[in-house]
Amino acid sequence: MTDQRSKAFRSWAKLLNPEELRANLVRASIFLTAYEFMSQALIEHLEGFFSDGFDANGPVLSDDYRSKVLSLHSMPFFASAIWFRDSGALNDEDLDRIREIREHRNFVAHHIPEILGSIESEVRSDLLCAIAEIVRKIDLWWIREVEIPTNPDFDATTADDLDVGATFSMRMAVLDLLLQVADGNDETLRQLYEQFKKQGLVH
Q1: Is residue 71 in some structural domain?
Q2: Taking the CB of the first residue and of the last residue of the chain, which one, N or C, has fewer CB atoms within 10 A?
Q3: What average pLDDT is seen over the chain?
Q4: Which residues contact 149 (CB under 8 A, 6 or more apart)?
Q5: Is residue 203 part of a domain?
């Protein structure tokens, strides 16, 4: 059997195997969802911080936002990433990973058939983990450098009091669950759901 013929048969096997098809659909959807979480972490923190209030369309962006953030890049996504790099939340390596993640996101979004039916195309689990790490860096930096100094709820807390290992945002918690599901492990999700049912929060 030629190499090309072998690849064709293995690709068909990948598509026709119900468990593998289901797993690849889940991984693709989780990668796209995780990317949106990262995009929100990058953009929405800064839009809210630099806004002049809100209207029916969302935050009213200030001149400061335009001069300090949007001036860094033509795309708000990358402008925000550069701002976080310049502020110390991210580094140059993180920016390179963000570019790589965005390229892979576009591939996954527009090439689902190849992801499902070609042995040469996969959702990259390393980039999924990189998304979680970048979101962790951004959200923890934001809590330490913005939320604690400016939120009255943290008046008795300083950045030095922050236990990084025990601190997380809701976005970080959900991403952790998604990564587990992408690896085929839904045990934590099931346990949490059972706890919700026991508390009468769902029926």
Answers
A1: yes
A2: C
A3: 89
A4: 159
A5: no
